[in-house]
Amino acid sequence: MHRADHHPSRRAFLDATGAMMAAGLAAGCTSDSARTDRKAATAAATPTPVAATGRHQAGITLPQPAQRNLLAVAADLDATAAPGPLLAELGRAILTLTTGTDPRLMGLPPGDLTVTVGVGPRLVRTAGASLPGAADLPTFSRERIAPGARGGDLLIQICADDALLLPVVAAALLHQAGDRIQERWRQSARRGTNVPIGDGLTAPRNPLGFIDGIVGPHTTAEQQRDLWLAGPPAVAGGTLAVVRRMELDLPRFAALSVGEQEAVFGRRRASGVPLSGGDVASGPELGAKTPDGRYLVPADAHVRRAHAAVVGAGLMLRRSYSTDEPAPGLLFISFQNDLRTFTATLTHMDTADALLQFTTTTASATFLILPGFDRQRPLGSQLFT
Fold this sequence. Notes:
Elements: H1 3-6, H2 10-26, H3 32-45, E1 69-77, H4 83-98, E2 114-119, H5 121-127, E3 154-160, H6 165-177, E4 181-190, E5 194-198, E6 201-204, H7 220-226, E7 239-248, H8 250-254, H9 258-265, H10 302-305, H11 308-311, E8 317-318, E9 321-323, E10 329-336, H12 339-352, E11 359-369
Antiparallel strand pairs: 1-3, 1-4, 2-3, 2-11, 5-6, 7-10, 7-11, 8-10, 9-10
């Protein structure tokens, strides 16, 4: 034998040692610092749980920012079923699901799971015809809505960063309800990348590339004024939701120049700053004009037509999500304590808003989001004894 057969070269030894170290790392034999970094990354990626109980239901102002994924299910209540016992059961199921003690989660950690429940106008009217939420949503232009995609008795809104939770939780709640409800339509959706808009708040981009939800009742005072219902006691702490699914004509909007797109919205696409100047949190100066007398924010721009002061209505809290099935578009959800806030705004937009020419609404409903609940005060107990 040659000498080399008994004594490997120094280079071969280093190569073999490096290979063994690489194998050890691949098997998880990391250094203490690597383990620490990995634990920190895992901890940072673990969503913070959101309490299901309280004065208000979760999934509206909490968490902030909203989770990345949503599943909305609209259903009808069987004519022979009583809403009170059903809602109480759903509330108890929500508590076990959000705390991770429900075996129907099949071991999945609930993370930041929230479930928000609302009832439609027909059910509200059975409790009181003059109650907030008793009025149906009117029809508007640019709607192509099948009968089964308009209205509904029950809304179940499920949100979580983990998209895998959504169908699992929906299946558990629908199984809980059994044949007392009939599913009407459902929509899965997700939020775009969050962008800072000042005061620690963020808002996502929509499928058209613009920041969505800059204006809203963000402070506690604004929410008390425009978001939460103050009375009567049966609905205090709740709010009114409008849910609209819209198809977007993305190819036609994308064919516009950036300047033309910005004129549609009245804001800069990249930054969200109004065309009248300022920063992203600045309100648009609707009277500002160019030297030749043209409005900096065009007369048909979305921010002008939907501006609360122009409409003469309150602020809406919007949680908008992007969809790709059944068609590319947007699931628009607004929360407000007066349905007129939405209806007056959309009526004003209907006449001349440049954005609406790129939208077609394919599902529409309004719901009274029930007040918060806990184990002593079941979901819906204030409204349905």
